[in-house]
Amino acid sequence: MATVKLAPVLRSFAGNSKQVSAEGSTLAEVLNDLYKRYPSLKAQIQPEGELSRFVNVYVSDEDVRHRGGLNATVGPNDTVTLLPAMAGGQ
């Protein structure tokens, strides 16, 4: 099972967990497994089916946009990091 690390802003959608485990061999499968337990996460990560452009997703520290997006391969020892983009400042 892959480890999924959640940014603080997403933890309330996943029972306040810092990280969880999820099964799958692609990012899409891992996320679908995650959504089965935490359905409200889907609106934050994939509001219209595709990955939100406001969420950065990494598999073992590599941006999935460079690894095939939802088709990115995820191994059982990989870490998926979900990190919403932050805006603001002056």
TrEMBL record:
What InterPro entries does this protein map onto? Beta-grasp_dom_sf, Mopterin_synth/thiamin_S_b, Sulfur_Carrier/Prot_Modifier, ThiS/MoaD-like
Q: What is this protein called?
A: Molybdopterin synthase sulfur carrier subunit
Q: Which organism is this entry from?
A: Reticulibacter mediterranei
Q: Give the taxonomic lineage as stored in the record.
A: Bacteria, Bacillati, Chloroflexota, Ktedonobacteria, Ktedonobacterales
